[in-house]
Amino acid sequence: MSGLKEKILRLIRAQGPLPLAQYMQMALLDPEHGYYMKRDPLGRDFVTAPEVSQMFGELIGLFFAQAWEDRGRPQRFHFVELGPGRGTLMADMLRAGGKVRPDFARAADVTLIEASPALRDVQARALAGRRVAWAAALGELAEDAPLFLVANEFFDALPVRQFVTTAGKGHEINWHERMVAERDGALVFALAPDPVPKALALQAMPAAPLGAVFEIQQSGPAIVSDIAVRIVSRGGAALVIDYGHAAGFGDTFQAVKAHAFADPLENPGEADLTVHVDFAALAEAAREEGAQVWGPAAQGEFLDVLGIRLRAERLKRAQPEQAVQIDADIDRLTNPAHMGTLFKVLAFAAPHTPPLPGFVC
Ligand code: SAH
Predict the structure, then answer these.
(1) Do residue 53 and residue 105 come from a single domain?
(2) pTM score, two decimals?
(3) Which of 154, 218, 240 has most ligand 1 atoms within 8 Å of its beta carbon, as the pocket-test mutant?
(4) Residue 113 in contact with ligand 1 by CB distance below 6 A
(5) 34 CA from centroid of ligand 1 (Å)
(6) Between 298 and which of 41, 224, 341, 350 could a Cys-Cys bridge form, CB atoms 3.0 to 4.6 Å apart?
(7) How far apart are CA 218 and CA 244, in angstroms?
(8) Residue 91 shares a structural domain with residue 127
(9) Residue 304 to residues 312, 359, 360: CA-CA distances in angstroms?
(10) Domain shared by 270 and 144, yes or no
(11) Which domain holds residue 25?
(12) Could you read off the pLDDT of 106-142 as tens digits, one per residue?
């Protein structure tokens, strides 16, 4: 049995079942055994867009160089990435953005928000030769310059709470929080015995049929609010890319190990746990702080508008032997059958500022 499973079982025996969010947090980020804390899972368990092709990070770099230019070329700005993985996206963005606008790369004060010591090491290697700072959360960053921020596949890793409907008295519907409990030494899903108080449930959850599952990811909108407040007051732009739904209902909690779906309760700490991102909730959080919002748009469309096909033609001319691979990479990133529509892009900036590139208005 994994060390983490034992730790979780001990905790459940001592204090009862854990809310799903707490389980997810421990499975991913437990300082001793958390999935991200000791290893670099990228490539081994899953592959992200920047790891598929350098074109992805290069186009995002051009997006930010243009957004920076359109916002008056500030001489210094915070260039922040949330959950930078192997550091590939940041390296590709700085290289491509710096090629078209050298001042952009010089003005960038890079901070990587990363929880994992193992991944911080990988990021330091990817960005060797560049001054980079690390932080555990955005709150550590001074609000002394515009903020340009990107997050690719970060929000899907934030802990989620789930609520399930059951039949109450008469025709009443009750919402119960979904918990992780123990049965015969195994971890199993269970419902909290007491329903969520009526007033709270009515406020937070829409009307739903019996058995419906509703997810709330509290930290996602909270982080977006923090980013939006900074951008509205100091300027800048944010780009959030992830898999998710424009508006949603249902259970999207999943585990992935070695490129295949796995049982999310079987081996905590050994598989990646994620949920689909609720883009409507993130967009709402940004708007509430007064930001101007673009999207969510499909990743495929966004990359098309930014000119991925033109970029591919140029790359193919420079490396004809790679042509087949380059076409396969584009297909993977943009085709609706692969990452093209499940992955979505949301952007926001201060109000009354020029439109951000990549979105068809
Ligand atoms: N953006 C990268 C990696 C995605 S994997 C890419 O596209 O390849 C998720 C990343 O978020 C990892 O770097 C992981 O360690 C980090 N992460 C997850 N939860 C975090 C948290 N709460 N705080 C900081 N980093 C976190």
Answers:
(1) yes
(2) 0.96
(3) 154
(4) yes
(5) 12
(6) 341
(7) 15
(8) yes
(9) 11, 10, 11
(10) yes
(11) 3-34+161-216
(12) 999 999 999 999 999 999 999 999 999 999 999 999 9
